[in-house]
Amino acid sequence: MGSRGGLSLGWRGNSLISLKSFSSYHIDVEVQDNECGTKWRLTGQLNTDQSIPWVVIGDFNEITNSFEKKGGRQRSNKQMKDFRTTLKDCKLIDLGFRGCWFTWERGRQRSTNIRERLDRGVATLQWVELFSYYQVEHLSHSFSNHCPVLLDTLGRERDSLENMKHEFRFEAKWCLDGTFEELVKNWWIESDDSLPEKLEYMGLKMQKWSKDRNKEDKRTRVALEARLNCLYNEDASDDNLAEIAEIQLGLNLEADKEEVYWEQRARVNWLQHGDRNTSFFHNMAGQRNSRGRVLDLEDELGNRTSNRDEMIKIASRYFENLFSASAGEPDKHIFGLVKRRVTTSMNEVLLQQDAPLKAPGVDGFVAVFFQKYWHLVGDDISKYCLAILNGQSEVGVINRTRIVLIPKVDKPKTMSQFRPISLCNVLYKIIAKVLVNRMSSILGDCINEAQGAFISGRFISDNVLIAYEILHSLKMKKRGKKGNFALKLDMSKAYDRVEWDFLARMMNSMGFHNDWIVLIMRCVCSVSYSVSLNGLNRDWFSPSRGLRQGDPLSPYLFLICAEGFSSLLEDLKLKGSMEGAPIGRDRLSINHLFFADDCILFGDASLEGANVVHEVIKEYERTTGQRVNYDKSLIYFGANVSVQVREEITGMLGVRLASNPEKYLGLPMMVGRRKTWAFNSFIDRFRKRIEGWSLRYLSMGGKEVFIKSVLQATPLYAMQCFLFPKKLCEKLEIIMNRFWWTSNKTLRGIHWSCWDKLCLPKSASGMGFKNLFLFNKALLAKQVWRIITHPHCLLARVLKARYFPFIDVLNANVGSYPSFTWRSICNAREVIAEGMVWRVGSGAQINIWNDPWIPGIENNRISGHDIDSRWCTVNQLLETDKCTWNRELLGELFDEGTASRILSIPISADSEEDILVWKYEGSGEYTVRSGYRALNSILVHSNKYKVEEDYSEFYKALWFLNIPSKIKIHNWRLVSNMLPHYSNLSKRKLTGELICPLCKEATEDSCHLMWNCNLLRGVWTYFQIPFLDIGEPSDPQKNFSRNRLIHEGIKFQLQEVLGFIRGYISEADIVRQNLHLQVKPNSAELWRPPEVGVIKINFDASYQRKEKLAITAIIARNESGNILGAETYLVKEAVDPFVAEARACERAVLFAKARRYCRVIVEGDALSVIKCIKRGKKDKSLLRSITQKINHLGQNFQEIFYRYVPRSANGMAHMLAIEGRRSSFSGCWSDNLPESVTMLAEKESRVMGTEGGFS
């Protein structure tokens, strides 16, 4: 295999292989292998065309001579002869090797130890001459039977390349070294220079340390490998094999560093899910390096070169010209049209001095450096960034940017076929993100609603749905004299052509403060560039225009520039020159839609209308420096526009005519009757995604992540706008199910479960995969919710004008000739209708008999009662003071159960507005997750998939275990009876065997594999583990050994099994300790005392569902841990646990107020309640009346904070709530707290080193 690929063939097992084609990329081969003897045949063009350089490297599963094997039975001479003959016929010569002689080994006991040289590299003479510096090396192996074989085509030439000077890059693997943190601390203290110079000094120190450390690690590795090779050459003994296992474990520790090394270069994150994937990261890094290499390049005159120095000159010259300002003067007309929307209060927000900083990294330093050593360097970095923000330091020192080229097409040749990405110094990114956080909060009020990008509350799906509606209207309008067109503009290098002077004047015209403009322009104008190509870096140059793609500020600054174009178009709309496309009959029209640099203009289909559009585009180009690529722009006309007019307008504008609109923002703009055909591309995308991954890199844990993070996410964007046909969803699910059950070795597999069962939650015996059709409806329901809760957004106004001008979206008819997007949204309305409930404020808008407003009953509506027309709205059920329910009236109108539920609804003292909330989410806001959970609950609670409560608890415990995912999935399959043991195979008519092949005593089924087999009992006895119950994980080696016995005929001994388990436990520990493994140990968080002068009050509640009663508990402690007071309180008519927890928090604040505390921290383990309190007036949950009272009471304190803590840190309040429920005591506790509470207090005091007890 060469550095640019090659030809390779390898196989294993006793399969018959036949490849019947040949090209420069594959070989026509036929191989036959059987037990009587091995016959090798390589046929076709491969054998006739001997001029092709060819190399084969890998596991041949055969030897050429008897001395290549040690131990075991003697190999048949005929087998070895056939292999030698095959190599001779194909003119393949052995490439030799460095390292240990044998490449394969089996057996840890002397009597069973076998070693062979099954892996090798062979090549033709032409290949050897082509890669004369090649080198084959047998690397040391750890717990695999085969050792890796490394073919280096550069060989000795690589040594000279390694001597080239490389720029500093922080290596994440350094953090694995135990001495590195102390070194970082010393290096940081040693330097007294400015921050950039200090970081440069750190880089030099780390580079030198790394070089010395690599030599030391190499010597250690070589010594281990030498000792390992020596042990391999000795006769096998128990001590010998034990030392081999110990050395292999040491080599695995070095392999972990290599894994982190390749992960950093692969730019992917896979290790966090618990699999060891060095080969995966190595492969991804290789692909990434191959894709980014530029082989040749054309200059502006069409001259092509492959010289590296010449190519980087071409690239640098291209960007110097691109980033040079144009000579034109800005037109003042456009600035006069821009509205001053930035108010004085907005400028005050922008110019605040305090800036919370979190550094993700520094130039050359990846994020992991700061995550691990922020306590050493964080203060200095924060001070430096604040000095720049306050104008005390210059930003140019850290504003150097490297430009790298990302190919847009395969094998790019010209500079226009690359996408430039700016690699900014991360110190600069910290500053830029602070500015972005300030500016993003006000841009929604400053930018025209037709711009949908990067503004909070505006979504890309809005632009897609609005554009689809307008184009659908154009298509359906076949009558009328006045027609319209849609013009999709292609802006050439939009970010790179932004004139700095235009940007500054736009900000000034919009009303930004001069100090803010100066701060932004300092960041924009102080940049300097250097182009990087194929590892070479060009000299630095200073631009005079352009925004960087990679700068956090650039998207927001581009919105400000695009606002100039939007202002021109709005002015034409007000004058009546370009009214745009009409929507419905409500005089609503739209003449443009922007999403960053994606522009669609809607104009009148006449020569006058086209001329207006042409002139406004020219004015925008002249003023801003932008350029429209008319060759790539296209126009679509309404159905009532004549062919002659179309031709005239197309000729005037110089754009392409589209009979059907092409994609907009990646989604189709026209979907006809053949819905499955329109979205059939997703089937191909699913298959390409799967084919692009080698299954040998993925365990079952990796497959789970791949399905959830890649496959299920692929159609998510389109599903927000379109309802996929059910058959299409089923096809996609079949692809995912087949991928899930496919064996990594045979590429085939038995489907042990249907997809619906896999879509159950993990606690209900499923894998938590998505039912795509239900997920599609949950995504579309989000659009319905936005239309209801944001009626003034552009999308809601467009749909209302078109389909429901006089009613609400839930009651609207689908209508005649509706768009596919509207029909998709209507299909999801039932999800929202069933999950909505009114939150009672004043009660004036809620109908007693028809609206959903009572929690806890079916449909949340009153049923089974005669309607009394005297009482229509809920406010009539309240007392005259409006703070409490009228109990007497409720008793007259409703039965006892309904009246009790109404009484449990909290009422606010303020006459708040009645609003609709989503009952399945604590915040009251609809989320796709809660919507899908509500839809999927029908499947979960069906009798077909119902899971017993004991098993549900087991599954929860299983998935919570801190072990690799593949082990958890194996145990899930075992408990769910999805393993291919004999009983299951017999049911599928795949075998006639039933007796366990290991113990030969009983039928092999899940129960037997789990704990009844004598072999497994011996394992548990050896490790002093009681015999397993259903809740403990099974042994992976048991199944591994059983499979080897059946499929390979290899017998084993108990000592070998135990040795494997010990090694596997060591492997699991290494993975657990890996730097990037995000699974945290189950270290319980404990209660911590507050600062001096602060009182901490913990609250909790014990809820009784049947009686609808709750006991709240609060306990107050000071900085010494002394208990200042405790209380339990009975809450009647609590509708659910959330209300009970909110009432407990309310009691905590009332308790603090009664004790006249000044500085208070209120802690509880109810996350939803804490979030609702922190939202303040934005809270829309059913708890709003309680949370508003809590916030109102909080105004009585000098300082009050609300914090969420886990149950382990809220133990005393939890225990007190339980004791209060047992004793039915409601009131304040003095010094006679329950014994269980005092014991817990003493325990926490000992751990925290505080006094504890009552004071």
Task: Write out key terms for the chains shown.
1255 residues, alpha+beta, Deoxyribonuclease I, Chain A, six-stranded mixed β-sheet, 34 strands, 13% strand, globular, disordered N terminus
Lay out the secondary structure:
Layout: E1 17-19, E2 29-34, E3 37-41, H1 45-48, E4 55-59, E5 69-70, H2 77-89, E6 93-94, E7 98-99, E8 104-106, E9 114-116, E10 119-123, H3 125-130, E11 135-138, E12 149-152, H4 157-162, H5 180-190, H6 195-233, H7 238-266, H8 278-292, E13 297-298, E14 304-305, H9 308-322, H10 332-337, H11 344-350, H12 367-389, E15 400-407, E16 418-424, H13 426-443, H14 460-476, E17 484-492, H15 500-510, H16 514-525, E18 528-533, E19 536-537, H17 554-575, E20 581-583, E21 588-590, E22 592-595, E23 598-604, H18 607-624, E24 627-628, E25 634-637, H19 643-653, E26 656-657, H20 675-678, H21 681-691, H22 700-711, H23 716-719, H24 726-741, H25 755-758, H26 772-789, H27 794-803, H28 820-827, H29 829-835, E27 836-839, H30 887-893, H31 896-903, E28 915-918, H32 928-940, H33 949-960, H34 965-975, H35 982-987, H36 1006-1012, H37 1014-1022, H38 1036-1048, H39 1054-1073, E29 1095-1104, E30 1109-1117, E31 1123-1132, H40 1137-1154, E32 1159-1164, H41 1167-1175, H42 1184-1194, E33 1199-1204, H43 1211-1223, E34 1227-1229, H44 1235-1248
Helix pairs in contact: 6-7, 7-8, 7-39, 12-13, 14-27, 15-16, 15-17, 17-18, 18-19, 21-24, 26-28, 26-29, 26-32, 30-31, 40-42, 43-44
